[in-house]
Structure of WD repeat-containing protein 76:
Amino acid sequence: LSVLKSAARLHQITAKGPSHVTKRAKPRKAEGSTVQRRSMRLQRMQPPEVPQVEAAVQEEEYPQVPAGPLPMAVDGQEESSDTALLGTWLRLSEMNSKDAEKPTCDMKRYQAALSSMLLREDGIRKVVSSRVCSVAIHPSESAVLVAAGDKYGHVGLWDVSCRTEGGAHIFTPHNLSVNCMRFSPSHPAQLLSLSHDSLRCGDVSRAVFDEICRSEDSLSSFDFLEDGACTAIVGLWGGTVAVVDRRTPGTSPELSADIGFKVTRTVDVHPVDKQYFLAAGSVDVRVYDVRWLRRSGNKAVSTLHGHTKSVASAYFSPTSGHRVVTVCADDKLRVYDTSSLSATSALLSTVRHNNNTGRWLTRFRAVWDPKQERCFVVGSMARPRQIEVFQDTGELLHAFCNPECLGSVCSINAFHPTRNVLVGGNSSGRLHVFME
Ligand SMILES: *[C@@H]1O[C@H](CO)[C@@H](O)[C@H](O)[C@H]1NC(C)=O
Ligand SMILES: *[C@@H]1O[C@H](CO)[C@@H](O)[C@H](O)[C@H]1NC(C)=O
Ligand SMILES: *[C@@H]1O[C@H](CO)[C@@H](O)[C@H](O)[C@H]1NC(C)=O
C-alpha cells in the first residue's frame, strides 16, 4: 500500500515539477541591487576545490545551482566590503555571549519593551532580490546580523549595525525558494538553509555552503534535534519527515518516515524533550517521538484538533514547550496546551486573524519570541501596515507600526533570542528591523 502511495506521490511531484517552475517565473522589475558576485574571500581562507557558479544570475529566473558544496566566495577580485561582512560574521560567532538579562515575565514591562523598539530609516534594507520566505537572526548580542532567504534561492546577509554602503551581500546557494533558515545554536558560524532542492550549511569559517541533505521529494522545513546541530528532522512537501545526521557521509537521510500527512509544511522540535517534534501540514498538526519513528505505521503522541483548512505553521513555545501556536487558512490563530502531551492537546485560545495573503505574499507564520514563553509575533493584513504580538491568551499585546517607514505586509518575522530586536521581511526582499 505504501509503495503505491509513494509511487502516486512521486508521479504527482514529477508531473507538477517543471510547469511549477515556468509558471512561477514572474518577471519582476529589478529594484536597485543586482546579484553581485564580487570577491568575498576571507584572508587566508582559501575556499575548498569546488565548482564555480555562473556569474550573472537573472533575478527573474530560478538559478541553476550545481549539487555538492559551493564556495561562499566566488571569483578572484580584490578584497571588498563583502569580505568585511564575512569577517564580522566569523568574529561574532567566536565571541562568547555574556549571560543575557533575565527576560521579564511581567506583561506590562514586556509591553513597554516592545513599545521602545522602533523602526528607523536605516533599519530598512533590501537584502534579497525577491519575496522573503525565511529570516534568521544571529545570536550575537554585540551586533545585529540578520539573514533572509527568498523565493529564488538567494540568501542575503546584512550587518544592521554597519552604517556604510557595504554590510550586506547576496549568496545563491539554492535553486528554489529558501523556506527555512536557522543559525546553529552552538556554532553560529554556521547558517543552515533549506530549499525544495536541498538543506545546506553555510559555514563562514570554511567559506563554503556544504550540502547536508537532498531528496527527490521536495523539502519544506527543518529543525535541529540537539543544540550541536548535527542531527535534524526535515519535513517534506510530500508529507513524510526525514531524520538527517550530518556526520554520516552522503546526502541521503538516515530515515524517511510516513506520518500519514498529505503535506508537511513545518516541523519543530520540543525545546526541552528533544525526542518530540511537531509536524503541521494540510489540516493535521501532531506531535511524534523521533525515537519511535519507522518507515510507516507511525502513531502520534498527541494530536492538535480543530483546523478546518490548511495549516501554515505550528511551533512549540520556546522555553517549556507547554504551548503550541498554529496559523490556519481558516483565518484563525490557535494556541494549544501541550504541557502534558496527552493523546489530544487542549485548545486554549483562538484569535480571528485575516490570513488572506493571496498569491504574491508568503503565508503568515506565527513564531514565539524566544525570550517570552507566552508571546508570539505574526504578520498582519491590517492597515496601517503592522506586525502583531499576541499573548497565548489571545490578547493583542502590541502592534509594531510606523506609517512612514512600514508600508507593506511583513509575512515573515523573527525576534532576536536575547535582545529587543525584531526583523520583518516583505514580498520584495526588504527587511525591517525594529530595535531599541
Ligand atoms: C539545480 O537545478 C539543476 C538543473 O535542474 C540541477 O542539476 C541541480 O542539481 C540543482 N541544484 C540543487 C542544489 O538541487
Ligand atoms: C485564509 O487565507 C487563505 C490563503 O492564504 C485563503 O485561501 C483562505 O480562503 C483564507 N481564509 C478565509 C476564511 O477566507
Ligand atoms: C517592501 O518594503 C519596502 C520598504 O518599506 C517598500 O518600498 C516596498 O514597496 C515593499 N514591497 C512590497 C511588495 O510591498
User: Anything to note?
Assistant: The CA atoms of residues 129 and 156 lie 9 Å apart. Helices lie at 2-24, 81-94, 107-115.
